[in-house]
Specification:
By secondary structure, the protein is of the alpha+beta class. It folds into two domains: about 160 residues, no CATH class; about 150 residues. The chain is built from six helices and 21 strands. The chain has a ten-stranded antiparallel β-sheet, with no helix packed on it. A nine-stranded antiparallel β-sheet has the order 15-14-13-12-18-19-20-21-17. The relative contact order is 0.10. Keywords: Membrane, Transmembrane, Transmembrane helix.
């Protein structure tokens, strides 16, 4: 064989070997190419309905969050009726952020596998997101995956079972392997009646048809510097700033124990025409806020208040008593001190 032929064959051999290794080299795949879309990308602010339920729960009370007037509200059930209560915005946004753009990997296909993964229409947890009348997604969540941070899911009207790298049940506070009942709305309720601390408050007052008291800071012309002015029972009394702030700190921030059905407003002494109290908070930069003060149940040691949205909160009777009477101890101490000087 001529030397030139040997050279040509050697070159061809090298090219063949090179092509073989090029074909065998792993192809670079973007991570998202490995997974199927379960929930599309969406604008979080566009979602105005989040509904979660399982047909295994016969109560007919789904976990339901709605958005209205730029705020989130959650459906609460009481004695066979339902009403909307304020919902914690930060938790809702964390939930939506966790769901947005969710992707999964197919593990099985066909209805024969539904029971294995607890992902049939009648035994799975349904999750639906809507924007107006448009359904953004409707997925079914089955049992938890082999690893804690995984779950089996499928899209409605689709028989592909997918695994996702997220504990879907824990997102709505279901800590079991499967969903046996609807998630509870209780821990999602925003019980913050007044979330601001006392540092921004420059005055408070309480009034009914029978009694009035007010407490204002030294910004008031009638107050001495470093003093707060208490007006009660027709008397004007100077209170040390520290004592006034101690009283305010005992009230703010104001968090409730629970919410109650606003349709039963008469039961709580808050309907129009009743002599409920008005607790007014004056802020340095945010204007004022008025809270209506209703009845007290002495036996249960609770009472009820209503904010400007019409939400009725259940609070401790001690808190209501403190608001109704005002800084009584401070008043007595200052009055006693004034008598000694005279």
């Amino acid at each position: 064989m001529k030397q030139s032929h040997v050279v040509i064959l050697s070159v061809v051999f090298i090219l063949v070997i090179g092509l073989y290794f090029i074909q065998k080299r792993p192809h670079h795949v973007e991570p998202n190419e490995l997974f199927e879309e379960v929930i599309p990308e969406f604008d979080i602010d566009s979602i105005d309905s989040i509904k979660v339920w399982t047909p295994k729960d016969k109560s007919g009370h789904p976990f339901h969050i709605v958005k209205k007037d730029h705020s989130y509200w959650i459906e609460v059930y009481e004695d066979g009726t339902s009403f909307l209560a304020p919902c914690q915005e930060s938790r809702v946004k964390r939930l939506l952020e966790s769901l947005r753009g969710l992707r999964g990997e197919e593990r099985a296909k066909g209805e024969d596998h539904f029971d294995t993964f607890l992902i049939g229409d009648k035994n799975a947890l349904h999750l639906e997101l809507k924007s107006g009348d448009r359904v953004i997604c409707h997925i079914l969540v089955g049992k938890r995956g082999e690893a804690w941070g995984t779950s089996f899911v499928r899209k409605v009207d689709d028989d592909s079972v997918l695994i996702v790298r997220k504990n879907m049940l824990s997102l709505v506070e279901i800590w079991q392997e499967r969903a046996a009942q609807n998630p509870s709305p209780t821990s999602w309720i925003d019980l913050g009646v007044i979330k601001d601390d006392s540092s921004e408050v420059e005055g408070v007052s309480y009034s009914t048809s029978d009694e009035v008291w007010s407490l204002t800071s030294s910004g008031n012309e009638t107050s001495e510097k470093g003093k707060w002015l208490l007006v009660q029972d027709g008397a004007q009394i100077s209170i040390d700033e520290d004592k006034a702030k101690e009283f305010l700190r005992s009230i703010f921030p104001l968090y409730a124990k629970s919410v109650r059905d606003p349709s039963k407003i008469k039961d709580f002494g808050l309907s129009s025409g009743e002599n409920f109290g008005r607790f007014t908070i004056h802020y340095r930069t945010k204007g004022l806020k008025i809270i209506h003060i209703g009845k007290i149940d002495k036996e249960k040691k609770v009472g009820w208040i209503r904010d400007n949205r019409g939400v009725i909160f259940e609070v401790s009777s001690d808190l209501i008593h403190k608001i109704q009477t005002g800084p009584v101890l401070e008043k007595k101490e200052e009055a006693s001190h004034s008598q000694e000087q005279n």
